[in-house]
Design a protein that fits this description.
The chain has 2 helices and 2 strands, in the order H-E-E-H. With about 80 residues, the chain is of the alpha+beta class. Strands 1-2 form a two-stranded antiparallel ribbon. The model has no long low-confidence stretch (mean pLDDT about 85).
């Protein structure tokens, strides 16, 4: 995914489970966090679906970012 989209990622270690009917069952999981433009969201979702069709995906609009490896892509 990093190579396909040219975006950096942060991986958090999480724990999956604690559902209504299986509260006592859980398992470790990775939570992948990245920032993409609104035009890249579809490509990101397609890439994730190819890896894990049942992945939970959360998207949110952000107004500002700073730091890290963010760079502006040159306009046409």
């Amino acid at each position: 995914m990093v190579k396909e989209l040219g975006r950096g990622i942060t991986i958090y270690k999480g724990e999956r489970g604690f559902m209504k009917n299986s509260f006592e069952i859980s398992s470790d999981c990775d939570i992948v966090f990245t920032v993409v433009t609104r035009l890249e969201v579809r490509r990101l979702k397609d890439a994730v679906a190819a890896i894990d069709p049942k992945a939970f995906i959360f998207t949110n609009t952000i107004k500002e970012t700073s730091g890290g490896i963010l760079t502006k892509k040159p306009k046409h």
